[in-house]
Input
Amino acid sequence: EKGGYEHFMLKEIHEQPKAYRDTMRGRMNAEGNKVILPELNLTEEQIKNIRNIQVVACGTAYNAGLVGRNLIESLVRIPVENDIASEYRYRSPIVTPETLVIVVSQSGETADTLAALREGQANGAHVLAITNVVGSSIAREADSVLVTLAGPEIAVASTKAYTSQLIAFTLLGLYLAEVRGTQSESEVTKILAAMQSLPEQVEVILGQRDAIKAYAEQIAEHKHLFFIGRGVDYAVAQEGSLKLKEISYIHSEAYAAGELKHGTLALIEEGVPVIALATQESVLEKTVSNIKEVKARGAHVMAITHEEHKTDLLRSVDQVFVIPQTLPLLTAALSVVTLQLLAYYASLALGHDVDKPRNLAKSVTVE
Ligand code: M6R
Output
């Protein structure tokens, strides 16, 4: 049942190219210039009337929502807030009938997320669920459902569900952009074409597994480490950090790269591993300055970037992992795969139960 893989997690990491394809299939037209999402169940008028979006979820699904915010705000220019589902109800969120609430849940059974869905509906919002399980409680109660087609996810650590959620957010962003006229047809065409290259680009990263494993064995000897990044790289840093903590039990923190010097820099000592996500050309120079700040304190820095920046970055970091060239908007769907493999191999090196990490359940049905 593990299809020849040692663990479900590794199998599911390798199933991502298929999960991307399945989640995209049938959701764009033959010309590749339009997204088709009848399941959204929203009229043109309703879409044009959306004033704000709230993305509510837990754990990895919350982290996917952070990338989702970046996508939707860039593509559609609607303000998006991210909420942790267990916090949402208790902060008296400002929800109106012009609010679109998006709940994200792999299982569709997370109690806090279900409660958030009901809170949104009680306030008159349309609630859209992004879920991997069609018959789940969340899918049944939501006003519309955008299904991710990742296939069953068995490992407690979510991998292919997260990346499929990123695909779903991208399709959603493009669709809303079409209706609201915020992106030109040529821009949409370009993004859709880049999306279609993602599955084979993931394969390229999977091909780096031996090098990632060797690096994971190195970090497995440490007690603390840091992930840094800006913009969408910061969102991915948060997921990378969660994945690592969850299954390797190594303590890590994800920091917005520019924020370290506002307190946390004191924790960077000789030899502390820092993983710097540096895929965003527009802020690359700034990220490099932040890398220099940690290097000056003795950090051992690994950077994730595009091939074209590798040589440059190697002047300031100790090691680089490269992701294939894609649009800045889509890098998360690639860079996170490196971090998933890293967490997997670190857990393996430490001899932990990768698929069933201690103290965690696959589906959390208590609040
Ligand atoms: O099924 P859900 O997506 O609602 O689950 C939410 C979280 O419990 C889940 O993502 C959790 O953080 C994973 N174990 C992370 O790998």
